[in-house]
Amino acid sequence: MGIYNKKQFLVSIKSKLILMMIGVAVIPLVFLVLINIRTLKTEVQKSIHKEHELTASKISQTVVEMVKTTQESLETIAITNPELFDWSNKFNREDIIYRMLKKYHHLEEISMISPNGMELVKISKRYAISPKELENISTDEKFKTLKCGELYIGKPEIDLDNQIVFELGIPVGGDKEYLTGAIIAKISLRQVMKKINATKTKEGSYIILIDDIGYLIGHSDYSQVTRRQDVTKSKGVTSLLKIKAEEKNVLKYEKFETMIYESYLGEDVLGVYGLIPIVDWGVVVEQPLDNAYATIRLMITRIIITFLLTILIIGVVGSFLIYLFMKPMNELANGVNSVKSGNFDYKIPKQNNDEIGMVIEAFNSMTEEIKKGERMKV
Hints:
Layout: H1 2-10, H2 13-80, H3 90-103, E1 107-113, E2 119-124, H4 141-147, E3 152-153, E4 157-158, E5 164-172, E6 181-188, H5 190-198, E7 206-210, E8 216-219, H6 223-226, H7 235-245, E9 257-262, E10 268-276, E11 281-288, H8 289-292, H9 294-340, H10 355-377
Antiparallel strand pairs: 1-2, 1-6, 3-5, 4-5, 5-6, 7-8, 7-11, 9-10, 10-11
Helix pairs in contact: 2-9, 9-10
């Protein structure tokens, strides 16, 4: 009996009206929401990419400005002190280095090199260096680069204090036989790390700084640097190395690329990457998609709840309205059954003057005529 009633309800006008009301109210809303979600997803990606590009650009500018400032300062010292590399000018050299180390917080160590590659003086902020520890670097790659009159930028490495440092060297007086000396400064990336840590990023985002071969030299979580985390599995890093390997990559230096890819942690991320001028390093900003789309997921959850509430309200209100609509129809059905059983005195109360009211009026007139006909037979 219950199954029969359920089937009867499913094929009834009442169920069809309820489904029609829900469909008319919900289907257009579903299409509208789907379109808006797609648009919102695109806008969220654009917003995140734009913010990441700005962050990457700031980090890049910080590194470039630090290198340029150091280079210009060292060149100024060399120009304003022409006798700097004379063997008898030891105290002047030391005084200049001490002043430089005091003035620039990112400088850790400065050494001055003679034309034949011998260190004339080397002073560090953290360690005492005796004259006996001065070395001849004439066979080192860095001195060969300086002797050719070119700027030398060394490979970043972790020092004894677990900070990333690299060497910057400038030639003085020209190249080859005209070289009068060189100045080499050891620079700490501590200031860059402070910039990375101070940079506000979206939840879950992190900044990666890599050297010219893809080694990690900076990260929002610095412990990953100290434990030598391998980030070369990140597609952003591999894309950077690919760009660097291409010819004429100078044209791509200030251009930051954006894409969705798999990070070195194996999760899908929204990433921005680009090369840093002068040093040939790279900066990558990544954010897991789970964090990036958190706002969209929250919105979808709210929409689903709204849908369910809408369907519930439509069902309740629709059922009440359909009850009012179906009441005269049910009374009409009862009247038909009464007439079939021989009760010609049954009258259906007329409540409205609409189409159903006209049908009820016609039915009552019909039963009255039948009643009269039955009396005449008698």
